[in-house]
Write a structure and sequence with these properties.
Low-confidence stretches: 1-46
Number of helices: 9
Structural class: alpha+beta
Number of strands: 11
Strand order of the largest sheet: 1-5-4
């Protein structure tokens, strides 16, 4: 039932956004690089396997969702493009109009838009106007899928609790999630938040499961590197920082701005450091998750790319290295499955630690 509902929800999302248009992009012709030296230029044809291009195109965001190659042609989902032009207003069309950046798209009033590829895809206007891009890119669609998964799974588990009660034996996803929820409560919330832990359990569970689901989706073939995007981890860290500031008490600010038991001369040095640490905490949250998830994708793709790099040198070397590369890739994939859960736990645990520091009461307060 859960999978059936999820299928219908995803179908509605893709139909409404027009993302179901398949784009069969022709391979680009042989690229030529012009070099001008001593008054003359030479054109060189790029040959061989470009590992960096393949790796960074996989982990970067895109207006296409690449699925696989068929007879030398990439098969991908063309995602909806939504841009705002300061003079022409809102423009909505499918990314298939760009033909993977080979052709411009003519919009309102004959103005053209181009898709520039590179380390980061960017849509530019021919008239040089500063346009705003609100497109449903690969990362955005991946986020929508993870949110739908999270809502469907959690609401169905909640219905089972409501129907059968908390004293009955759990079944299905309920049986799988209950130990995880109990673990977050007993090992993350209670030790760091004390008797106020129930107030923050929804936040901690949402952070943990949102990050965990997106980490796992990123490991699927053709998956999006959502949590390996620093803008995503920065938003999650910002949410934690806002909550930390919103619930902070006088005791927290008193220790931050006027540390007790510290000589006045030391306070002039210690207080700026404490204020800096307040902002360093969310930055550390952001960079830790981003770096770990992106590094895992790069390592796996780099090891797989070694097959094609050796194959470009010699077919014998390529086939000979293939078993080693595949074995190590499988090992790294299994390791990343563990890292996906660990990083979600670390983020939720540190969020609880930082919030707990902000709501900590004076040591003489033994309120129940």
């Amino acid at each position: 039932m859960v999978l059936k509902r999820l299928f219908y929800l995803l179908a509605v999302v893709f139909v409404l956004t027009g993302a179901t248009n398949f784009a069969f992009a022709q391979h680009e012709g042989n690229e030529h690089h012009e070099a001008a030296e001593h008054g003359h230029s030479e054109t060189k044809e790029e040959k061989g396997f470009n590992a960096s291009k393949v790796i960074f195109s996989h982990i970067a965001d895109s207006h296409y969702w690449h699925l696989f190659d068929w007879n030398g042609h990439p098969v991908s989902l063309s995602l909806p493009v939504i841009i705002y032009h300061p003079e022409n207003g809102l423009e909505m069309f499918s990314a298939s109009e760009f033909h993977h950046g080979e052709h411009p798209y003519k919009g309102k009033n004959g103005n053209e838009y181009r898709l520039e590829s590179g380390m980061k895809e960017k849509i530019v206007s021919a008239d040089g106007a500063a346009i705003k891009d609100f497109s449903l890119t690969k990362n955005v669609v991946s986020m929508l899928i993870s949110v739908i998964l999270l809502l469907v799974i959690m609401t169905n588990v909640a219905k089972k609790y409501k129907k059968n009660g908390v004293m009955s034996a759990p079944t299905g996803f309920q049986n799988a999630l209950e130990p995880v929820i109990t673990f977050i409560r007993d090992e993350v919330a209670k030790p760091n938040l004390g008797n106020k832990y129930m107030r923050f359990m929804p936040l901690l569970l949402t952070i943990f499961f949102f990050i965990w689901i997106n980490n796992l989706l990123g490991l699927l073939p053709g998956g999006a590197n959502f949590t390996g995007n620093i803008a995503v981890t920065a938003c999650l860290a910002l949410v934690t920082f806002v909550v930390m500031m919103a619930v902070s008490n006088k005791h927290y600010w008193g220790h931050l701005l006027n540390p007790p038991g510290v000589p006045m001369g030391i306070k002039f040095l210690l207080v700026p450091i404490e204020i800096m640490s307040m902002f360093i905490k969310p930055i550390a949250l952001c960079i830790r998750l981003f770096a770990n998830m992106m590094a895992g994708h790069i390592v796996i793709l780099s090891v797989i790319s070694m097959i094609f790099i050796f194959g470009a040198i010699s077919s014998v070397a390529g086939w000979g290295f293939a078993p080693v590369s595949l074995a190590f890739s499988m090992f790294m994939f299994l390791l990343e499955l563990l890292v996906a859960a660990i990083q979600a736990f670390i983020f939720a645990n540190l969020a609880a630690v930082f919030i707990g520091q902000a709501i900590e009461e004076p040591h003489g307060d033994h309120a129940h």
